[in-house]
Predict the 3D structure of the following.
Amino acid sequence: MKRLQLILLSLALLLGICLPLCVKVAASDAGTHRFVIDNAKLLTQNQAEQLERSAEEISRCQHCDVVILTADGIDGRNPTSYADDYFDRNDYGQGSDRSGILLLLELSEGVRSISTCGFCIDVFPDSEIEALWSRCSAEIQNGRYAEGLQIYLQSVDRMLSNYDASGNRKPNPVRSSVFALGIGLLLGFAPVSALKSQLKSVRSNYSATDYVRAESMHLDVKRDSFLYSNTSYRVLESQRSAPSSGSSTHVSSSGVTHGGGSAKF
């Protein structure tokens, strides 16, 4: 009995020594993979922490890494290449195709760059990237960085919610319901119409001649009188071609295919 107690006590002491070490290692590993990197110091500590929590939650739920990076100078490098390389070299991206999206705000030149990878290349084509930026650009351009970046994260999350973990578009529940309702109405209309037609003993006529007695009405004068005319004018605009909905892609220095690009803000 005493030997058993001694063994249990030894195990408890060993667990007490190892547990803090495990927690420390786990915390260290988690801290090396941040989602909001504010190198330009645009955010307060509280703002950065709130955005970090939001980006981490979106990344976990949407099965792709959503990263925000700010910089005040990138050593004269191309912003698009810088964003791609930062994504690759810091091991961002989830799954075998390393899915993720990174927003770079470069303050010294006033450039924003969005780099996509994996299924995010298809989720965020060029047109969607422009729409995504337009939703948050006003806040960012006016120096309300935390507010603008929060709008950006919400927009990214909303767009990603239309896709599953494999990058396939989820069926639209409203569209599916309308389609099912239409099929149901169509299937029900045919038999009901057939039954309804059997109940009609009188057919409607499209002319009044059947209701007029023969030679009961005589017209002495027949005349057509022109009253007035009305002419309207309308300017026809030339048809504009719709913008491309595809994603322009490029290869980073690591040999990884990325989508997105850069623009002034």
Notes: The beta strands are 36-38, 65-71, 100-106, 111-117, 249-251, 257-264.
